[in-house]
From TrEMBL:
NAD-dependent lysine deacetylase and desuccinylase that specifically removes acetyl and succinyl groups on target proteins. Modulates the activities of several proteins which are inactive in their acylated form. Its main location: cytoplasm. Its EC number is 2.3.1.286. The keyword Nucleotide-binding does not apply. It comes from Jannaschia rubra. Gene3D superfamilies: SIR2/SIRT2 'Small Domain, TPP-binding domain. GO terms for molecular function: histone deacetylase activity, NAD-dependent; NAD+ binding; protein-malonyllysine demalonylase activity; protein-succinyllysine desuccinylase activity; zinc ion binding. This is NAD-dependent protein deacylase. It is an enzyme of class 2 (transferase).
Length: 228
């Protein structure tokens, strides 16, 4: 059985929407998930944003309000405890701040951060207001091109070099609550395994990915059970 013991000194954890599901934030691809209710081409691509920025802002404003009203769960808290050990890298595809609010250190938000705004024109970043609108000017260049600081399809995920370095050095790779359908994150288990790491999946439903061990169940039970 894989545990985060001394033999697993360098650990990379990749989390997905399943980590925050029990905090009341929707997943994407489960029945009734976000992609059953919204067209991803319209709300999660640069082309969709160019066509209808107000619709995209509505989608993210609603999710920001949900995030603010939600609280970290036992799985976020367990990963926060883990993040205080040396050699641990927490990478998340989630754009919520629940890991940080649980006290996690150094979280790598590869798909961005719902709490931040980005200017599509000049690349400036700042704290997002509760409600963003297409008319709001960038505080740096004045362009009316502000967007949530999140990574859409066709865009380069953030901090890839750092993630690839951590994967190459990992003794253990753990995937928590992600369907493993979106690249490049979907390829991390295979990369870590090719570099010599053991791989473990903690998920409600197995993703069918490249794992030495798979444990099924809700994140709030599996993650504390593995960490502590
Ligand atoms: C529980 C649970 C509980 C539930 N407890 N578990 C072919 C055509 C076109 C494009 C491509 C192509 N092949 C590859 C691509 C590229 C594309 C891609 O992967 N497309 C695929 C869909 C095919 N990727 C990109 O475009 C990315 N960029 C890119 O590749 O750049 C080039 C590059 C290459 C190589 C290196 C570097 C760069 C960008 C992807 C951006 C994704 N953006 C989104 C939306 C923005 C953020 C947001 O709005 O939140 O990110 S899409 C959406 O999916 C979101 C998520 O982060 C991401 C992953 O979803 P996740 O987290 O896995 O959620 P679900 O819902 O899928 O799964 C939930 C899981 O939880 C399930 O397994 C449940 O069982 C589980 N669960 N309850 C435990 N209680």
């Amino acid at each position: 059985m894989i545990r985060p013991a001394a033999s697993s000194a360098r650990i990379v954890v990749l989390s997905g929407a399943g980590l925050s599901a029990e905090s009341g934030l929707g997943t994407f691809r489960d029945a009734g998930g976000l992609w059953a209710r919204y067209d991803l081409e319209e709300v999660a691509t640069p082309q969709g944003f160019a066509r209808d920025p107000a619709l995209v802002h509505d989608f993210y404003n609603a999710r920001r309000a949900n995030m603010t009203a939600s609280a970290p769960n036992a799985a976020h808290e367990a990963l926060a405890r883990l993040s205080r050990r040396d050699g641990v890298t927490l990478v998340t595809q989630n754009i919520d701040d629940l890991l940080e609010r649980a006290g996690a250190r150094g979280v790598v938000h590869m798909h961005g951060d719902l709490s931040r705004a980005l200017c599509h024109a000049c690349g400036a970043r700042w704290d997002a207001p509760a409600v963003m609108s297409p008319e709001a000017p960038c505080p740096d260049c004045g362009a009316a091109a502000t967007r949530p600081d999140v990574v859409w399809f066709g865009e380069m995920p953030y901090r890839m070099e750092e993630i690839e370095t951590a994967l190459a050095a990992a003794d253990l790779f753990v995937s928590v609550g992600t369907s493993g359908t979106v690249y490049p994150a979907a390829g991390f288990a295979a990369l870590a395994r090719a570099a010599g790491a053991r791989t473990l999946e903690l998920n409600l439903d197995p993703s069918g990915g490249d794992f030495d061990e798979v444990r099924t169940g809700p994140a709030t039970q599996l993650v504390p059970g593995w960490v502590d």
